[in-house]
Write a structure and sequence with these properties.
single chain; about 270 residues; alpha+beta; 434 Repressor (Amino-terminal Domain); Beta-Lactamase; 5-stranded antiparallel β-sheet; 12 helices; about 10% strand; elongated; Helix-turn-helix transcriptional regulator; Cro/C1-type_HTH; MLTR_LBD; Lambda_DNA-bd_dom_sf
Length: about 270
């Protein structure tokens, strides 16, 4: 997001990103291969950087490529990174790769989501995992965090809802703080309203991994799934759409869960 300032939109936005990343002008200059004086002049509006310098500064601050385009536009340059619709024929190799990854995770649930947690694609195991959620929660665009924490979604079946809900919320809060967006902030506020009080006692996992302990959809089945999640993204993508995709896999934390997941996706 671009912030206006008396020195101009680029100067204010660059300073805002540097402050958010907690990087000094000197450190940024070293990373970008320039001088502290030049960075200072850019942030004060006394110097107008070229296109390549803006990209180098943005890369050095790990600015998401969508926002790098905004920095370029603020300086009067054309965007450097395309944003291609995922259904564009040019992205067929990416779509194929994602579907193969999702299928490769079977019988374990896995999803691909966008920057807001909206579902892009999922394998059969994930659809089995959320079976029983209210139909209105499953309409496109389907918010995966909302389905997980909503009282008409998975929430009633999550044995450690207080712990799991705040794990999800804090992860989204961290993303929102790192890369601010109004829609993401609104989602965090909504989920905070759905979550139970934050647990007072320290969890047994000591912050290394928060398990999802989910009861079966069938009340007669007293078994419980224990899952941990992993997140993967395209770290070298130069297309906005691809760079914002996230693959989340739900992996079994014990042999019993592994066996239950295998049963879940049996034909």
């Amino acid at each position: 997001m671009i912030s206006e300032s008396t020195q101009g939109p680029l100067a204010g936005a660059l300073r805002e990103w540097r402050t958010r990343r907690r990087v000094s002008q000197l450190e940024l200059a070293v990373r970008a291969g320039t001088t502290q004086r030049h960075v200072s002049f850019i942030e004060s509006g006394r110097s107008a950087p070229g296109r390549s310098m803006i990209i180098r500064l943005a890369e050095s601050l790990e600015v998401p490529i969508r926002e790098r385009n905004e920095l370029l536009l603020a300086a009067g340059f054309a965007p450097a990174y395309p944003q291609t619709r995922l259904d564009d024929p040019r992205l067929e190799p990416i779509r194929t790769a994602l579907e193969r990854i999702l299928q490769g995770h079977l019988p374990y649930p896995a999803v691909v989501v966008d920057r807001f947690g909206d579902l892009v694609s999922a394998n059969a195991a994930f659809h089995k995992l959320i079976a029983g959620a209210a139909p209105h929660l499953l309409l496109a665009p389907m918010s995966v965090p909302r389905v997980l924490l909503h009282p008409q979604g998975l929430a009633p079946r999550i044995a450690n809802l207080d712990e799991w809900a705040w794990h999800i919320i804090e992860r989204l809060q961290a993303e929102s703080a790192r890369n601010p967006d109004v829609r993401l902030q609104d989602l965090v506020s909504e989920l905070r309203g759905l979550a139970p009080p934050r647990p007072r006692e320290s969890p047994d996992h000591l912050g290394l991994a928060v398990p999802l302990r989910q009861r079966a959809h069938d009340p007669a089945d007293t078994r419980e799934l224990t899952l941990v999640t992993t997140l993967t993204h395209f770290g070298t993508a130069v297309d906005v759409t691809i760079a914002e995709l996230r693959l989340e896999a739900f992996l079994p934390a014990d042999e019993g869960t592994s066996a239950m997941l295998a049963e879940l996706v049996e034909p």
